[in-house]
Structures are given as C-alpha cells and as structure tokens.
Design goal:
Elements (H helix, E strand, L loop, with lengths): L2 H94 L6 E4 L23 E4 L2 H32 L3
Antiparallel strand pairs: 1-2
Helix pairs in contact: 1-2
Amino acid sequence: MSPVALRVVGAPALVLLGAICAWQIQCWRYGAQLAEQSRLHTDTLNQLAMVGAAAQKTEQDKRLVLEQRLAASAQSHHETLTNAQKDQARLRDRLATSDLRLSVVLAHGSAGGCSVPAAAGAVGLVHGAVRAELDPAHAQRIIAITVEGDRGLIALAACQAYVREISTPR
C-alpha cells in the first residue's frame, strides 16, 4: 500500500481505535462506579435491617417483661380471690352450724311495738342497744350478696391494676 493510502486508511482507523479504547475505558469506569454504588446500597440496607431487628428485639423484650408482670399480677389477684372465697366459705359454715349469728342493732321504737327477741349476751360497740338476731336463711342470703360484691370488687381491682400496668411507660 502506498503511504498516502496508508494515511487515508490508517488515520481514521487510529481515530476509530482510540474511540473504541476510550469507550471501553468509560465502560470500565462506569461499571466500577455502579459496583461501588451497589455495594454502598447493600451496606445501607444491611444497616437498616440490623437497626430494624434491634428495634424488634427491644419491643419483644418489653412485651415479655409486660407479660411477666401481668402474669404475676393475675396470680396475685387469683390468690386474693381464692382467699376471699375461703373466708366466705368459713363464714357460711359458721353461720350454718350456729357457731356465729348475725344480729342488727335496733333503734328505739323501730320495731313498731313488735316484740323482737334480743340476742342473749350480744357483744358489740353499741352499749345498751337492743339487738335482734337474723334468721339463718336471711343471714345466708346476706352473705351470698356480699360474696358477689367481694368478687366484683376484686375483679375491679384486677382490671384497674391491668390498665395501670399496660398504660405505665417503662
């Protein structure tokens, strides 16, 4: 080939070869930038996942502590209810065996002229007052009513303790 033909063909070939090399270098640089960006993105996602897992663990621990406190509170209220039921059963037994008699203080003239038998040897804080013994069946009904009232008060106390436990920030 002649030197002119070589220049005519060689110069554009060199320009083309330079452009291809420049293009390839740009591709490598762009690929390296994309790889670095991908690595940084992955690191950020991993850090976010670790922070989320730590927050979830903290919340689970809080919930476990709250559940343990509530279980202890429930056990305490169950014991209170059981003790109250035992006391009420003993009281009913004492009333049934006539070991204990319920009586009421009568105000003067409240019997309306009826003769109500006073309790023999009634002991109380009111000195000299007239007392009347209640019929055992009526006493049992009064005890049954107080049992229901006690159960309601114990349940109310348990509900209040539950609300205090779950609403108190710790």
